[in-house]
Amino acid sequence: xxxxxxxxxxxxxxxxxxxxxxxxxxxxxxxxxxxxxxxxxxxxxxxxxxxxxxxxxxxxxxxxxxxxxxxxxxxxxxxxxxxxxxxxxxxxxxxxxxxxxxxxxxxxxxxxxxxxxxxxxxxxxxxxxxxxxxxxxxxxxxxxxxxxxxxxxxxxxxxxxxxxxxxxxxxxxxxxxxxx
Length: 180
Fold this sequence. Notes:
Elements: H1 27-30, H2 34-45, H3 49-61, E1 63-72, E2 77-82, E3 85-90, E4 95-99, E5 102-103, E6 109-113, E7 129-134, H4 135-144, E8 150-153, E9 160-162, H5 164-172
Parallel strand pairs: 6-8
Antiparallel strand pairs: 1-4, 1-7, 2-3, 5-6, 8-9
């Protein structure tokens, strides 16, 4: 006879359920930024690795708001309208988005990104436009931003800093968006 006790756990007990259980995430769930903003707040209240990965996973699939200047190459335009009243339309590939870059007191440069449009203070735009774009596009912009390798999520409100390591991790996470 064995002296070891074997404990049987119920399959649905809270102790055996995985907190990383996968569920379907749809673009509609992430559309207005409320889910991402909620995860930012949750992380700030409980700075655990699990909460950070939930935040990064959601960020990876979200659109964010980026204060930027938009310019077009005037040589890359299409002419529309009537001959006596032409209208110039920039060709999509000719648009250049240049994000604002903040220099923090620590000397590092950061690109500000916002989870929701409501989180942006108009006085912090400094004449820039607010561009809504996928976070994955922000990663490409950051890669080309000279001397800048970090994001600050919801600056002037929550100030979640995504340093080089967190940016790298966020870019490597698989999408959790449902394909159906």
